[in-house]
Amino acid sequence: VYATDSENAQARVLESGKIEGELRAPTLVINGAVMGDVYSNKHIELASKAVITGNVYYTLIEIVQGAQVNGKLVYAVDTKEKLCVSPTKLAGRIDEKQNPVINKSL
Questions:
Q1: In what order do the strands lie in the sheet with 38-39?
Q2: How far is CA 89 from the centre of its chain?
Q3: pTM of this structure
Q4: What's the pLDDT tens digit per position in 21-73?
């Protein structure tokens, strides 16, 4: 899941929510399950029911007691402008079927 290029883009994974694959947004609030790497260049909150199976790339992180990360926490301030851009956009091409762009907050 890739957010738009807007600095104000936000994604939320609710307690009953589950994402399989990469999650990229400037601001993230996760209280469900994510199986894949997570990227945030602004703020990420891992609520008490969050379960991440993958690496978390962040510039500012808040972890509530009970949240789980089964992977690495990577402070990525040097590359923060690139954290929320889809890999294909970085390469100069966008394939909407393989890399859907979310145009609103989830």
A1: 73-75, 56-58, 38-39, 23-24, 2-3, 101-102
A2: 16
A3: 0.75
A4: 999 999 999 999 999 999 999 999 999 999 999 999 999 999 999 999 999 99
